[in-house]
Amino acid sequence: MKKTLLTIASLGITVSTSYALSPKRLDVKYNYERLDPYSTYGEWNSIDLMLYGNGGRYWTPFIGGSIMDRKVEGSATLGVIGSYKDWTQWLYTYSALSFGTNSEYLPKYRLDHEFNFKLGAEKQYVVSVSGTYMKYWNVHKDIVLSLGGSIYRGKFVGIFRYFHNISKPGNIHSTSYLISLEYGAEKDHWTYINFSWGKQAYLATYLSNPEEIRQNATIIGIGHRHWLNNNFGLIGELEYMRLEDSYNKYKISGGFFVDF
Q1: In the chain, which ranges are continuous DSSP H helix?
Q2: Do 240 and 249 touch, CB atoms closer than 8 A?
Q3: pTM over 0.70
Q4: Partners of 15 in the beta sheet?
Q5: Measuring CA to CA, which residue among 252, 221, 214, 219 is closest to residue 236?
Q6: Averages of pLDDT over each 10 residues, the chain, 260 residues
Q7: Domain residues of the chain, as ranges?
Q8: What are residue 175's DSSP bridge partners?
Q9: CA distance 42 to 145
Q10: How, if at all, do strands 189-204 and 172-185 pair?
Q11: What is the third-level CATH fold of 4-259?
């Protein structure tokens, strides 16, 4: 069964889909993001690398990182280590620990853990319960709780997730949602489309009189992973994000992966 990881970013929801079935896999991807108004926010560039190991039939460890550069906020790096683990025929987990260098937009550290319960005669239904804790380099912290599920029907995978975010200081609560549809199979191709919407909410402590900020965020993305042969393929993604009263963001990503 393909394992899909859903993550929360600092702005809205992003989706990172991991196909961790091969004994080992290396993903390399370049991302270009242009923000509008450009004169205010500029552009973001980043390179992502992820290596999936072979811990046996029931365990997939991974390690990776990102090198990022933003026109306004500067450069930073992020590292992550974690694993998928099958415990029984009906339960697998995902765990990860991330560390970011000192910057305005990366967490100092982040901890993710997710329980996935496989149901149905063919284990075609998966109920997911997860929690995320993020501590930033300033006074802010985020706690994210999520509940959702996936349905596997032949080459189709449907996903729905609900996210509840608690931002500290201020105990500011907000919610977000994700719908994703994927189609494909290993060693052939995977294609997905994502739609997410919800609120970004936090206490703006940089103001002389801190106040609560609430902004609607909408993201739509489409991606494709295609095998050119049994062990090598290409990755492509397009994404659009609108953050209310702030910016529109246009993202294009391209890269490759190697199974070995």
Answers
A1: 38-41
A2: yes
A3: yes
A4: 6
A5: 252
A6: 38 40 82 96 96 85 95 94 93 95 94 96 94 95 96 95 95 96 94 95 84 93 96 97 95 95
A7: 4-259
A8: 164
A9: 32
A10: antiparallel
A11: Porin (2.40.160)
